[in-house]
Amino acid sequence: MSELTPQVKRRRTFAIISHPDAGKTTLTEKLLLFSGAIQIAGSVKARKASRHATSDWMEIEKQRGISVASSVMQMEYRDCVINLLDTPGHQDFSEDTYRVLTAVDAALMVIDAANGVEPQTRRLLQVCRARNTPILTFVNKLDREVQEPLALMDEIERELGMTVVPFTWPVGMAKFFGGVLDLRKDQMRVFSPGEDRVAGTEEVVQGLANPVLADRFGPAYEQAAGEIELVREAAPEFDHEAFLSGRQTPMFFGSAVNNFGVQEVLDALVDLAPSPGERAAMQRTVHPDEPKFTGVVFKIQANMDPAHRDRIAFLRVASGKFSRGMNLKVVRSGKSMRPNTVVTFMSQKRELLDEAYAGDIIGIPNHGVLQLGDTITEGEALQYTGLPFFAPEMFRMVEVADPLKTKQLKAGLQQLGEEGAIQVFRPVAGSVLMLGAVGQLQFEVVAHRLEHEYSCKARISPCRFQVARWVTADTGEGPAADERELNRFIDGNSHRMAYDAVNAPTLLVEYAPELRAIEANWPKIRFHALREHA
Ligand code: GDP
């Protein structure tokens, strides 16, 4: 306990994840509405309008600036401060999303009840599962013709590999959607479509067995009641510990566009989701209510104004209290900084921030002082772990069209690499830089940004490599032997070795079978598809 404990305890930091079109934007907006952070729906929609055209990368480019203001939203609800982090919708930017997931304590998964678990959701879930992030599930669009709730529950359970515990259960669907039975409060909340009402005005019928329900909702009610019996027999009781460790997910049904079921989700976030916990650093474990400030940069976003080249580093406060103008140290470089124009993200507006506590996200404008994965402290040498970099799946060679612009290319690529927009590799043998990405769109964005922000036309050409693995040695004979073995490996494979932005040695190969052969030949070398910043 410390004087910070009450502030930490009242914070909830979560990401909202879904496949495009499941209703993430709509739900986000309704959460803001129900918390009172915004008065009328619409502001999130505006952003969405541009996001929808994301097959067109120019649109993504345009949005970069817009989304700075809207990718983190803070709201107050009941006694809590809720930080909601949006995850980029386009799958080519999934790397960014994965990093966002390292900055949250829980995730809210939105599922389109007609489509069930879709590919993008699946990938995001894998990351949540790997980190044992607690997940709340919202099944959306019950006002439509959708899958049967039992089938959905079964699918989610299988896909998630965790037990689904329904908190509500739908009565009917589409035209016959009557509302949800609240299994915990023993009541039914009646659905009325299209109303723009907020908290407290919903019609509630007490008692799940109330004969009024059968009269009013007929077969839909009978079916729901039967399903609940089944579910009650089969599903275990909700166990808070199991939820916190990612083994159970509470499930809610609703219709975000109709404001229906939103309040339950907001309440569940407050009642069930964890407040910020301790975080692992290489040196030690850090508690959120320790007096000294620490934080970690999980996202870097370039600003709209290309001429300025300033970038906002998104930092999750891990411990202590942040106050504007305090003296901070970037542990990696040892540099000091005293950020004065730090921003927070209240209800979509950027506002100057005075203080922040563990779980809060702050934005620090900077010109390249901060990199992804950086740990910021009041002076302690501390490095947080766990920010993932994924081995790219696509590669290109990059050169300048005009040799006099080589310097601009290098500078541009370095910055774009630091932002996480692309991964840049320097081959051990040869001088042509290589780009690695997880999505094709990243190359196009990089070419465009090099040209417009760094006045450098890049020539991006195909490259024979298709697989990358970071390599380390593990001889079991100590660090000196490991280093010798690693150097031996690098020398022996110099034609297919490169260094990434933080000088981590990386093996590049053309085909997966080639990788397997190399692995078999080098038993003391470890090959990693994932690198955690350290
Ligand atoms: P996102 O891509 O996940 O952010 O999805 P959006 O929130 O933009 O929603 C995609 C579409 O589904 C939009 O046209 C929404 O109006 C619609 N939508 C969202 N929630 C519901 C719902 O509960 N019922 C129906 N019928 N449509 C919905």
Automatic annotation (TrEMBL):
Q: This protein's superkingdom? A: Bacteria
Pfam family, any one: EF-G_D2
Q: Any idea where the Tr-type G domain is?
A: 9-277
Question: Which positions are annotated as binding GTP?
Answer: 18-25, 86-90, 140-143
Its primary localisation, in coarse terms, equals cytoplasm
Instruction: Return the similarity comment.
Output: Belongs to the TRAFAC class translation factor GTPase superfamily. Classic translation factor GTPase family. PrfC subfamily.
Gene3D superfamilies per UniProt: P-loop containing nucleotide triphosphate hydrolases, Peptide chain release factor 3, domain III, Translation factors
| CDD domains, alphabetized | RF3
Organism of derivation: Pseudaquabacterium rugosum
What is the name listed in the Swiss-Prot or TrEMBL entry for this protein? Peptide chain release factor 3
Q: Where in the cell is it found?
A: Cytoplasm
Q: Which InterPro entries match?
A: EF-G-like_DII (IPR053905), EFG_III/V (IPR035647), G_TR_CS (IPR031157), P-loop_NTPase (IPR027417), PrfC (IPR004548), RF3_C (IPR032090), RF3_dom_3_sf (IPR038467), RF3_GTP-bd (IPR041732)
What's in the keyword line of the UniProt record? Answer: Cytoplasm, GTP-binding, Nucleotide-binding, Protein biosynthesis
**Function noted in UniProt:** Increases the formation of ribosomal termination complexes and stimulates activities of RF-1 and RF-2. It binds guanine nucleotides and has strong preference for UGA stop codons. It may interact directly with the ribosome. The stimulation of RF-1 and RF-2 is significantly reduced by GTP and GDP, but not by GMP.
